[in-house]
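User: Second chain of the day. Same drill as before.
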Amino acid sequence: MIYFDNSATTQTLHEAAERACVAMTRDFYNPAAAYGAAFSVEKSVTDARIFAASLLGAAPNEIVYTSGGTESNNAAVFGALRCVHGKKTIVTTAVEHPSVFETVNTAAKMYDAAVRYAPLRSDGTVDIDRLSEVLTPDTSLVSIMHVNNELGSVNDLDRIAAKVRALSPNAVIHSDGVQAFMKTPMQRIPVDLYSVSAHKLHAPKGVGFLYVRSGVRFQGGQIGGGQERNLRSGTLNVPGILGFDAALHAYRANEAAWHQQMLRVKARLYRNLSALPDVLLNGPAIENGAPHILNLSFLGVRGEVLMHALERYGVLVSTGSACSAKKQGKNRVLNAVGITGARQEGAIRFSFCPFNTEEEADTAADVIENQLRILRRYQRR
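Assistant: Same format as last time:
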């Protein structure tokens, strides 16, 4: 099998699975309990928190563990807006992941808030020069993703944050970093809230964190037992957290090599497929996008049909976000950047991990070429 859908989820590393298994079977104690065995577990979680924070140039108390990216995004939007009194205005983009896009729309109805959409470039990035068109002094929340999960577009968070702070000094700035964390270079985090999910990084599903800058106006997410400094109640998912920690250590130890490997596979597959007729690149140029995401349109065939044809030959890809895979209708993200009609219908997302190979890219390209020849023949009848 050739798995090119790593933006949907990744295979858990053996060391991450083993660390989680030990936490479930031996070190299973609740870290909030008041006896020695629980203190040892709490210490392990604290060490994991310290390491995760170091990867963002953050303080350990700025890391709030959650169940993953969707919860982190929900908590960011609602936790920030609950602190705003009076008129609420939200700035976001039309290409956000559903866990931001739909959450913003729900929050807007609940709080009678205005929503403004930042202008985009054709590659899916925010047009920072035109960002002033939607920013005002009363803007309450700005939520702009770091890396687009369908196109691989990389937003310049430093420039975006600087623009927001200049024109909307009272706004809380959030970024969905699920597809960016550990896959794009970052020395420090320039925003107030930043969402991360473990299962995109070869760690177990069901865990992630929200970076919450010290001093930011934020009321948190779940209410209950007061865990995570009252910002996210609920018994900590210790197996997930420690499995995530093991995966993050592996990523940090191999960061440069793994980035280069993903980029090599991406470039190899694009070189192979771009030589075929009627294949178009969606999103940024290869060298400008995230190293692990490639979106191509195959004219003359429906993406869903091609996806299932490839599956029969052991090549797994997607037509977009896994969270929207079973929803019918047009692709909101592609629509927003002007990719419509046959080009949208024929779009396929390939997403890579450090363990994919250039040989897999060659094999996948051969399968795609053969299937295109067959499917286009039937499609054009």
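The domain at 2-7+255-379 is CATH 3.90.1150.10 (Aspartate Aminotransferase, domain 1).

User: Great, on to the next one.
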